[in-house]
Write a structure and sequence with these properties.
This protein is α/β, with parallel strands linked by helices. The protein contains 13 helices and 15 strands. Helix 1 packs antiparallel against helix 13, helix 4 packs parallel to helix 5 and helix 12 packs across helix 13. The site of pyridoxal-5'-phosphate has 12 residues, from helix 4.
């Protein structure tokens, strides 16, 4: 179906066919949900061995796991985090269940006290953050809550548009950081190219001294294919540029083991970690070391993590294949939309014709399929072109994904044809 070349009569025929299909779906009174970027019960069950795995043995790393203390996490847990992030164990701390919480804390400390413990962002006027978009709504929510102005940056297939990023940073010392999801980004699934990683590592040479890249590597081991794309090691590039303090890294086992009961990691220069831990020590006496030990027993090293992730891929891949199959069948050689075909992560990103994302989301909702709200993938919830829709196929059952996608593609077609007829 090509809208641009269709006659009015052709468009009217399509519209009538699509309306009939759409109302047939409506009559089924479905209640489906394609919004939730969380693991399915089948994936969670892959880690059920965590329960009781310590068998009453609470000693590890010369520590009584049950007691207070150990702010930076167990040493073997820091080592595991370091292997995952490609860092030295002294550059990693292991914490509680959520990397988002760590990011939030790092942002709060930077705002209140400064990422270097000296130059607090709150003492400056015009504090801004770069937000490559489409991106992760919860990153944007943190900035919004702190009153940090967000600047949308184009996200290309290779990562943020670095010409744009560099010229913005060069021109404005009020820019204090940038959100990055460098591997299988939420929602596009793009993997930053080696050149992009290098240029991000070099930003510390032109940015304000209290500028920090928030490198959220949430999907670092979440490959869906065998020959997964490699991500360059940003800390190595920072060392080459002498900018080790300009990047804070985060990841977690949320989508490796139990999403609500995993272990989060923060990686940074020793200097940055010391500043962070000084503040963290006011908020907590230490993390859940029992849970860290449970994880180490099940996943002692990165090889074990990777083997475990293959089991996740076996569950996830058919769902992604289903989404992509529907999109290809409905829209290949059409002018109705574009989408990403990620090699990992949790999402597929779809762009409608300009101005249609909100209409498609509403049509889908009225036919019983909940989609992520239009605009959610942009700062302030405002997609300038009203095009982007995040598809999250991990949680529903495969047959539900199949039905959701049949309805979704019908909604996209119907919205596109009606828009063309109205114009
Ligand atoms: C990019 C990104 N970062 C962080 C998170 C949340 O991580 P955690 O569970 O470790 O807080 C998510 C969850 O969807 C995510 O997509």
């Amino acid at each position: 179906m090509r809208i641009e070349q269709a006659s009015r009569a052709q468009l009217e025929t399509w519209r009538d066919e699509l309306r009939a299909q759409y109302s047939a779906y409506q009559q089924r009174k479905l209640a489906l949900d394609l919004t939730r970027g969380k693991p399915s019960a089948e994936q969670l069950a892959l880690s059920d061995a965590l329960d009781g795995i310590l068998q009453g043995n609470y000693a590890l790393d010369n520590t009584d796991l049950r007691n207070y203390g150990g702010l930076e996490g167990l040493n073997p847990a820091r080592k595991l985090g370091a292997e995952i992030l490609g860092l030295d164990p002294a550059e990693v701390i292991a914490g509680g269940n959520s990397s988002l919480t760590m990011m939030y804390q790092a942002m709060q400390y930077a705002w209140m006290l400064g990422p270097d413990g000296k130059n607090a962002w709150r003492h400056e006027s015009g504090v801004k953050f770069l937000c490559p978009s489409p991106g992760y709504d919860r990153h944007f929510a943190i900035c919004e809550q702190l009153g940090i102005e967000m600047i949308t940056v184009r996200l290309t297939d290779n990562g943020p548009d670095m010409d744009q990023v560099e010229s913005l940073v060069r021109a404005d010392q009020g820019i204090k950081g940038m959100w990055c999801v460098p591997k299988y980004g939420n929602p596009t699934g793009c993997v930053y190219s080696t050149e992009t990683v290098d240029r991000i590592a070099a930003l510390g040479k032109i940015a304000a001294p209290n500028f920090r890249v928030f490198w959220d590597n949430a999907y670092v081991v979440h490959d869906l294919v065998d020959n997964a794309p490699a991500l360059a090691n940003i800390m190595e590039r920072c060392r080459a540029h002498g900018t080790e303090n300009s990047v804070l890294q985060f990841t977690s086992t949320s989508k490796i083991t139990h999403a609500g009961a995993g272990v989060a990691f923060m990686g940074a220069s020793k200097e940055n970690l010391a500043v962070f831990c000084k503040q963290l020590g006011i908020a907590t006496i230490g993390p859940d070391k029992v849970n860290q030990a449970r994880h180490l027993k099940m996943l002692p090293d990165v090889a074990a993590v990777k083997a475990h992730m293959q089991k996740h891929a076996a569950v996830l891949k058919p769902r992604f294949d289903c989404v992509l199959q529907h999109l290809r069948e409905a829209f290949a050689d059409s002018d109705l939309g574009e989408w990403t075909e990620p090699a990992g992560g949790y999402f597929v990103s779809f762009n409608t014709r300009p101005g249609l994302a909100a209409t498609v989301v509403k049509l889908a909702a009225d036919a019983g399929v909940k989609l992520t709200p239009a605009g959610a993938t942009f700062p302030y919830g405002k997609d300038p072109e009203n095009r982007n829709i995040r598809l999250a196929p991990s949680f529903p059952k495969l047959e539900e994904v199949d039905l959701c996608m049949a309805i979704f593609t019908t909604c996209v077609k119907l919205a596109s044809v009606e828009q063309a007829l109205a114009s």
